[in-house]
Amino acid sequence: MGFPFEPAAPSTKPGERTKSCKPGRLGHSMPLTRGQTVGYDDKRLAFRFTMLNAGDTIDCQISDAAMDELIGTKGSPHTIREAQFLEHRETIEGLASDLFDAAGALRGAVVRIFSKHIPK
């Protein structure tokens, strides 16, 4: 993507967010770091994953429609969502991090990525 990388800046105050050396899609540093894949949620028609914010786990999900929009497909079966997520993980996590950063840190909030969040 051609973004310049900067070394991570260590936190100097308790509770202060450290900045990752990987920029988000909007060009600023990602406040969240990679967590774990959780899996597909049949009830919400979304793929669930976690990210970390200074040791706190942040629940995240990307809807089927958003993942299809991101990949450029339509109607992908839920059985391949994990493979799609892993293939596009950096981009999806960047979007989740940008949404988290824009909304502010709300304890217990879930970061949800919908089609409207996918850049055209």
What this model shows, in words?
By secondary structure, this protein is α+β, with helices and mostly antiparallel strands. It has one domain (33-117): Double Stranded RNA Binding Domain, CATH 3.30.160. The chain is built from 3 helices and 4 strands. It has helices at residues 64-71, 81-87, 89-103; strands at 33-41, 46-53, 56-63, 111-113. A 4-stranded mixed beta sheet has the order 1-2-3-4. A hairpin with a 4-residue loop joins strand 1 and strand 2. The relative contact order is 0.19.
What percent of residues are in strands? 15-25%
Overall geometry comes to globular
Helix content: 25-40%
In the CATH scheme, the class would be Alpha Beta
Q: Can you give keywords for this protein?
A:
four-stranded mixed β-sheet, globular, 23% strand, 25% helix, disordered N terminus, 3 helices, alpha+beta, Double Stranded RNA Binding Domain, single chain, 120 residues
Secondary structure topology:
Blueprint: E1 33-41, E2 46-53, E3 56-63, H1 64-71, H2 81-87, H3 89-103, E4 111-113
Parallel strand pairs: 3-4
Antiparallel strand pairs: 1-2, 2-3
Brief sketch in words of this structure:
This protein is of the alpha+beta class and 120 residues long. It is built from three helices and four strands; from the N terminus they run E-E-E-H-H-H-E.
